[in-house]
Amino acid sequence: MPETPLLQIEDLVVEFPTRGGLVRAVDGVSLTLGRGERLGIVGESGSGKSVLGRTVMGLNDRARARISGRVLFEGKDVLGASAQERRELWGRQISMIFQDPLSALHPITPIGAQIAEAVRRLPDVDKAQAAERAVELLDMVGIPDARRRARQRAHEFSGGMRQRALIAMAIACKPKLIIADEPTTALDVTVQAKILDLLDELCTELSIGSVLITHDMGVVAQHTDRVAVMYGGQVVETAPVAGLFAAPTMRYTRALLAAIPQMAPGRRSLPVPIGGTPPNPLERGAGCRFAPRCTFAEDDCHQAIPELLALADATDHRYRCWHPAAVPAETEAGAR
Amino acid sequence: MTSATSPVGATGSAGSADASDVPVLELVDARVRYRDRQEGGYFEAVRGVSLTVGRGEALGLVGESGCGKSSTIRAILGLAPLSEGRLLIDGVAVDPRDRAVRSRIGAIFQNPAGSFNPRRSLLDSVAEPLRVWRGGSRADRERAALAELDRVGVTELMARRRPHEVSGGQCQRAAIARATVLGPEILICDEPVSALDVSIQAQVLVLLDELRTQAGLAMLFISHDLAVVATLCDRTAVMNAGEIVEVGTTADIADRPQHAYTKLLHDSVPSHLFLTNSGSS
Amino acid sequence: MTTELTAPPAVPSGSRRRGRASRRRSWTWMEILSATWLVLLVFGMFLLPLILHLDALEFDAKARFAGPSAEYLLGTDNYGRDLLARALSGAKVSLFIGLGSTFLALVIGVPIGTAAAYFGGWVDAVISFVTDVILGFPGLVLALVLTAFLGASKTNVMIAITAQAIPAFVRMARSQTLALMNRDFVEASKVLGTRPHSIIARDLFPNIADTILAFAFVAAGRAIIIEGGLSFLGMGLPLPQPTWGVMINEGRQYLNTDPHLILVPSVFLMLSILSFNVLADRLRADATTDGGGKGA
Ligand SMILES: Nc1ncnc2c1ncn2[C@@H]1O[C@H](COP(=O)(O)OP(=O)(O)OP(=O)(O)O)[C@@H](O)[C@H]1O
Ligand SMILES: Nc1ncnc2c1ncn2[C@@H]1O[C@H](COP(=O)(O)OP(=O)(O)OP(=O)(O)O)[C@@H](O)[C@H]1O
Ligand SMILES: [Mg+2]
Ligand SMILES: [Mg+2]
User: Which backbone phi and psi does A329 adopt, to 5 degrees?
Assistant: First the structure.
């Protein structure tokens, strides 16, 4: 047996009791992440990406949600951890970059002090060193005039700067795993590229594992090793990044790719939205989750949920689809 | 000082002719200064920006993070101090802090859930501008709000939920409904689709495009994504360090960028070429 | 690592709210115990003295500092007065003064603090300055000066205790509101032309209520103790009337030799405040579950 993977998610189900009934936000997700590996999670809004991230982080506990399945961090159970163990995890091992930077930053504490606080979780760092390090980190994420900026408060930062401050905070304590929930949505491509390169560098250098939650296929293509596409709480396709773009198999993945705004030279063209409405988690049919919106759906698609099947020529490329796009005939045999 | 000599300004419709003679929205030589708490002086985030938006026109505003895009529109919305410069609506100078101006300009912010009061249903929030401006019975207001929500594709079931109980896309649609429920002439959008995933981003862009063409809204559209701007806007202005450094038709900006930053932006748009091959089957 | 920063003071983060706002919960043990305690206390306040023929003022020279016994269920104090009788008799006054003055302080202080944060500028500067100055004095001293000035009566004690509690609410409301001022939904309301009083009532108050309410129960406990301090110094209610505060202050002298003198009223005070807190939490959770906005 090789060493235990950094993160193992096994058949995770997260349900929220609501007025309308039980909402199954994450539905049987299994994923594995090795040390220094970068996993991308893409999918449309409401597909359960953030809930998955928060659960892995141990932020959705059993009092708030019904959780079954297992999440193992370095072989240790995260979901069953005590409050004390969890704080230990958050402080030193796993850090998360939240989706909404303004509400994730403290409104009145200066940004530098907030980062310094994270730095001080490292052993043997005194106050002055931490403050110095905070400035360095701000500089690293590309905030000009970092020393002055460190003393400013969240509302004095522009949207993109806040997001970068959060990233600085997340890498401050040198965690083993970073969960980044749409970390660069407020950044233009030039800064985004810089930040993601920085994250990549850190990940390889310190062999930090990262889970990158995003809706940007371009980002996924360039900054992850593996991709999991989520739809309606399930992983509907997962593959090494090259494989996914070379042969997007599940119909939803294809539709997702077509919805990207393109810079067509010389004319304006609106992207192709995916028709229909996202699935209502309270009214799920028996069939494939995407079937009601899928232009290729046939009768059998509405009957049963397809299994996660593997492509024959690439066993780590799996998809859930009854009528996959362009699958060579023989692959159907390569089920798990 | 800079803008007087500056070779470019977003004023004057460079190319697009459908703007009628008097622009709906005109910003002249706007400056925004923030007090610097530490050194006592001022930090000038916007340095003499001029721009015009005509009826049914969408002007894109792109630029590096921190260059002053949000500050510019916050000044138009009366949220940031317009320390110098003028704002004209339909050719008439107005004070952005004047309450009467508020019903004529709708605004959409980046963070969908964050721009709604977490304690109130979306419906309540969308009906709020009607309460403020129109009065009428609660039932009437709700009916009008529901009609507007329906137009942008939010069902009543969704509208009765609170912001955190619906998806980002639903929330952003509701935000658009709130911004348009009073029938404003101008719609100002600060990165309205940045937090949305591509499929919903596309839906919202299509919706905004409809509003622009059908309701003839003048739209000022901020984004850091040139591709997004290219899908929606006729003209685009590029900002850098508080100034507008390049302005022209979106096609020109996208295909023949002049300013160094625009070039950089253009070059670093992730190439989706390999996606186009396989993506559209 | 960023965990304690995820929820800024006032607005609960999305998931916490979503978590709370789930289906009507069954009662937890804490809630059942809290409700039971309050029911017993009210029952005890009004009926127990009649049933057990308790007298809070009767001296028993033979049973000074007595421990619990069949005759004196919770023992007696330095004059041989029944502690249970005194605690129950004191409950009425203490709860009335504690909750009443806190309520008044909240109603006066929170709008002032919120307005200070909302309008900023010189309004804020003046309010903050006054608050800081007043907060520089211990609450007891302030209340003392006021009662000395106004004269000791139930109303004046109430006024004095209310007055000393106001600045804390002002400061609390101010800092909580400041944290909200730059949030998008407040700005969205401004941009719609909503008038300040509307924004304060609809956007700000509901979102700082949780924190303020939690603080209010702590303040109520403090008010009860300050009332005791006043009585102890002869500036409170007319003396023979026992209150929890009086009992705690008297009991303090015998802390080392006969701790039950201070223990009895303290436990009454603590349990009551705690119960209020737990039940208020519950009510709030239910309110957020049921009303999807006011009209839904
Ligand atoms: N506490 C909760 N109570 C009820 N439903 C919830 C709760 N948290 C999440 N959900 C629901 O779970 C589903 C998944 O939500 P999640 O936030 O994970 O989506 P997402 O993929 O991150 O979307 P986005 O791209 O908009 O951030 C949604 O339908 C959401 O409404
Ligand atoms: N309230 C404020 N006080 C002081 N400085 C501010 C304030 N708001 C913004 N700034 C500064 O003004 C500059 C411009 O900020 P602005 O928010 O307009 O940028 P932006 O172009 O919208 O950037 P982004 O794309 O990152 O949102 C930044 O340097 C920012 O730090
Ligand atoms: Mg999310
Ligand atoms: Mg901005």
Answer: -50, -40
Determine the residue of chain C that is closest to B73 in CA distance: C191
How far does residue A325's CA lie from ligand 1's centre (Å)?
Answer: 29
Q: Which of A46, A186, A219 sits opposite B191 (nearest CB)?
A: A186
Do B231 and B144 share a domain, yes or no? Answer: no
pTM value surpassing 0.90: no
Hey, which of B35, B37, B65, B67 would you mutate to test ligand 2's pocket, going by the most ligand atoms within 8 Å of its Cβ?
A: B67
With respect to residue B239, please indicate whether it lies within any of the assigned structural domains. yes
Parent domain of B236: 3-104+184-273
User: What is the band of C74 on the pLDDT scale with cuts at 50, 70, 90?
Assistant: confident
Between CA A231 and CA B220 the distance in angstroms is 33
Angstrom CA distances, A203 to A35, A54, A237, B185, stand at 9, 20, 24, 49
Same-domain pairing of B134 and B268:
no
Last residue of a domain, one of B139, B156, B176: B176
**B26 and B61 part of one domain:** yes
Query: For residues C133 and C75, is the Cβ–Cβ distance under 8 A?
Result: no
> Can you tell me the distance from the alpha carbon of A36 to that of B14, in angstroms, rounded to the nearest whole number?
50
Same domain, B146 and B41: no
Contact A64 C23 (CB under 8 A): no
Give the percent of chain B with pLDDT over 90.
Answer: 38
B189 compared with A19, residue with greater pLDDT: B189
Q: pLDDT tens for residues C163-187? A: 999 999 999 999 999 888 878 899 8
Higher-pLDDT residue of C95 and B87 is: B87
Shared domain for B92 and B140, answered yes or no, is no
Question: Is the domain of B7 the same as that of B90?
Answer: yes
Interface check B149 vs A, CB under 8 A: no
Shortest CB distance from B160 goes to which of C184, C187, C296?
C296
If asked whether residues B99 and B196 sit together in one domain, one would say: yes
Interfacial A residues in 31-50 facing B (CB < 8 Å): 42-46
The per-residue pLDDT for range A277-288, each reduced to its tens digit, is 777 777 777 888
Pick from B159, B176, B193: which residue ends a domain? B176
Residue B278 located in a structural domain: no
The pair of structure tokens assigned to B243 is: 């100034």
CA C188 to CA B114: how far, in whole Å? 10
Same domain for B190 and B265: yes
Q: Count H helices, E strands: chain C?
A: 12, 0
> Is B281 domain-assigned?
no
Structurally, chain B folds into a number of domains equal to 2
Among B102, B111, B114, the residue with its CB nearest the CB of C193 is B102
What is the pLDDT at residue A329?
Answer: 41
**CATH number of the domain enclosing B247:** 3.40.50.300
N- to C-terminal Cα separation, chain A = 20
Contacts of A274 in chain B (CB under 8 A): 199, 202
CA–CA separation, C293 and A97 (whole Å): 30
Best of A45, A57, A89, A103 to substitute, by most chain C Cβ atoms within 10 angstroms, is A103
ipTM: 0.79
| Predicted confidence (pLDDT) at residue C22 exceeds the cutoff of 50 | no
pLDDT digits (tens, 9 = 90+) for A103-113: 788 887 899 99
- Burial-class residue A290 by CB neighbours within 10 Å (0-12, 13-18, 19+): buried
Query: Is residue A83 within 8 angstroms of chain C, CB to CB?
Result: no
- Helix, strand, coil shares of chain B, percent, nearest 5, are 40, 25, 35
Q: How far is C7 from chain B (nearest CA, A)?
A: 13
Quickly state the pLDDT bin for C11 (edges 50, 70, 90): very low
pLDDT at A12 over 50: yes
What is the per-residue DSSP string for B159-192? HTS-GGGS-HHHHHHHHHHHHHTT--SEEEEEST
Instruction: Measure B168 CA to ligand 3 centroid, in angstroms.
Output: 8
Is B60 part of any domain?
yes
